[in-house]
Amino acid sequence: MQTGLYINGEWSAAADGAEFTTHDPATGDLLATCAEAGPQDVDRAAEAARSALRDRGWTTMAPSARARLLWRVADLIEEHAAELAELETRDQGQPLGVARTVSVTGAAEHFRYFAGWCTKIEGTLSPISHPGTLHYVRREPVGVCALITPWNFPLMIAAWKLAPALACGNTVIVKPAEQTPLTTVRLVELCARAGLPPGVVNLLTGGPAAGRALAAHPRVDKVSFTGSSSVGREIVQASSGNLKRVTLELGGKAPSIIARDADIDQAVEGNLQGALLNSGQVCAAYTRLYVDRRRADEFTEKLAAAASSLRLGPGLDPRTQIGPLVTLDHLDRVDSHIRTGRAEGAELVTGGARADRPGFFYPPTVFAGVTDTMTIAREEIFGPVLPVLAYDDPDDLAARANDTDFGLAASLWTRDLSTAHRLAADIRAGAVFVNMPPIPDAAAPWGGFKSSGWGREMGPYALDAYTEPKGVWLHLPS
């Protein structure tokens, strides 16, 4: 498979002919050769997006017409669901069931949800105090938006950026992670097939250099980035040249609190799902499991037994429950964190070593006896690692849960509504899930506190990310 760049409605090689490759994480085999965008390509994409915004009527298109185009994209995603799911699994590694029910379904739902918003982006009338003056507020597109997506859910996260940006009348340049570009390439093809005008959606495949160039480009008005906190900080610095708008959804170290009254079997099952979805390669994965000390042994024993029974394998195998990690480099990083955990005194209960098979597989790893100061309790691992921390005093939980640089998500497991509401209010996180795994929805806000990012995506809050309010003052002479 060979893929090119998509700029101004045309597919082409990179201006300098540069290319990179992507590989199947289940085998290490070559999957595709992709064009690697350079500075000239970034310039061309920015100019194409600017021209489509200004000269080709995308911004002034009737909202109902934009809505029909987005709805058509959703229909095409569903028509090609089997193909997209298989491609996502081959390129990223996630089990085919996850690709079908989370990635592909989620992508279609985001386009449908924001298609509905096209005709409902309203301004306001302001009761100002100037006599004889009418004041109203328009919501206008931000402009050219660079959408930089991660490798863990490439199709769905591309959709949750693309759909609101287009619904609000912006033009876009999509830059997928170099590890997993293939479903984004296919999504852009479907956008073109749906009838989006040339230049409205542009695609640049490539590595970090292309992302940096987009963040710094003077013709780009906004960057929406999902990825690591360290790269998020680089984007903030790069974007300062023209003070472009920035939305960041970054890392996480989500606490999961298992109260004394929790249904332990339900908590074990839910935390396995919340910690091991996509092999733990989820920003909101449950990665600090706080358990009442009187129930910690029971919870840990059941958790380890359930984790060790999960079947590792290629995502295309319908029996697979845990797929591979995305790359060999990432496998090495996860393994390094686990070795650090053992060196710092955490008790290894199950897992703890690479799987003896081709591909980038790591079995679920459970640690007991973990303390708040250990590296595995503080740093984002982004892998199938479940550290169990005991607690004695429930009054300490909020402080311990908040003792982190991150604040993306948190989880509570309890039968007591007072406990649930109190802790949900006290924990500094953008989303708190009670008795359930962390699955976002197109209609609900998504984003974090602290080093987990800036702004919110999804729901009506995404309209704030992709529009600018403009005040209009009109003097009405008597």
From TrEMBL:
<dbReference type="InterPro" id="IPR016163">
    <property type="entry name" value="Ald_DH_C"/>
</dbReference>
<dbReference type="InterPro" id="IPR016162">
    <property type="entry name" value="Ald_DH_N"/>
</dbReference>
<dbReference type="InterPro" id="IPR029510">
    <property type="entry name" value="Ald_DH_CS_GLU"/>
</dbReference>
<dbReference type="InterPro" id="IPR016160">
    <property type="entry name" value="Ald_DH_CS_CYS"/>
</dbReference>
<dbReference type="InterPro" id="IPR016161">
    <property type="entry name" value="Ald_DH/histidinol_DH"/>
</dbReference>
<comment type="similarity">
    <text>Belongs to the aldehyde dehydrogenase family.</text>
</comment>
<dbReference type="Pfam" id="PF00171">
    <property type="entry name" value="Aldedh"/>
</dbReference>
<dbReference type="GO" id="GO:0008802">
    <property type="term" value="F:betaine-aldehyde dehydrogenase (NAD+) activity"/>
</dbReference>
<keyword id="KW-0560">Oxidoreductase</keyword>
<protein>
    <submittedName>
        <fullName>Aldehyde dehydrogenase (NAD+)/betaine-aldehyde dehydrogenase</fullName>
        <ecNumber>1.2.1.3</ecNumber>
        <ecNumber>1.2.1.8</ecNumber>
    </submittedName>
</protein>
<feature type="active site">
    <location>
        <position position="249"/>
    </location>
</feature>
<dbReference type="InterPro" id="IPR015590">
    <property type="entry name" value="Aldehyde_DH_dom"/>
</dbReference>
<feature type="domain" description="Aldehyde dehydrogenase">
    <location>
        <begin position="13"/>
        <end position="471"/>
    </location>
</feature>
